[in-house]
Specification:
- This protein has 2 helices and 6 strands, in the order ααββββββ.
- The protein is α+β, with helices and mostly antiparallel strands and 92 residues long.
- The protein has one domain: Immunoglobulin-like, CATH 2.60.40.2000.
- A 6-stranded antiparallel β-sheet has the order 1-2-6-5-4-3, with no helix packed on it.
- The two termini are 18 Å apart.
- It holds the Pfam family YabP.
- This is Sporulation protein YqfC.
- It comes from Paenibacillus gyeongsangnamensis.
């Protein structure tokens, strides 16, 4: 059933020319070098420190590891961090 729903959402996105991240409620990440990361479609901050950020997603979580991490902006579904980013992990 999940596979059928996923295929339907992908088909709908293509038919209506919509970004798949919007239709399938996926996170969108923009990484600039290893110094800035902008994440859309998150569901909240689970943990934050100067070397680790954990975000809840609609399907899993996202973990960002680095040094001197700072949250520059945070909104209900968007977060912008700066620092030296070493690793990004998606955990379903």
């Amino acid at each position: 059933m999940r596979s059928l729903t996923r295929r339907f959402n992908q088909w709908t996105a293509k038919l209506l020319d919509l970004p798949q991240d919007v239709v399938m409620d996926l996170p969108r990440m923009t990484l600039i070098g290893n110094m800035q990361l902008y994440i859309e479609n998150h569901r909240g901050v689970l943990h934050f420190s100067s070397d680790e950020l954990k975000l809840a997603l609609s399907k899993g979580r996202l973990e960002v590891y680095g040094k001197q991490l700072v949250i520059r902006a945070i909104l209900s579904e968007e977060v912008f961090i700066e620092g030296t980013i070493h690793d990004i992990k998606y955990i379903p």
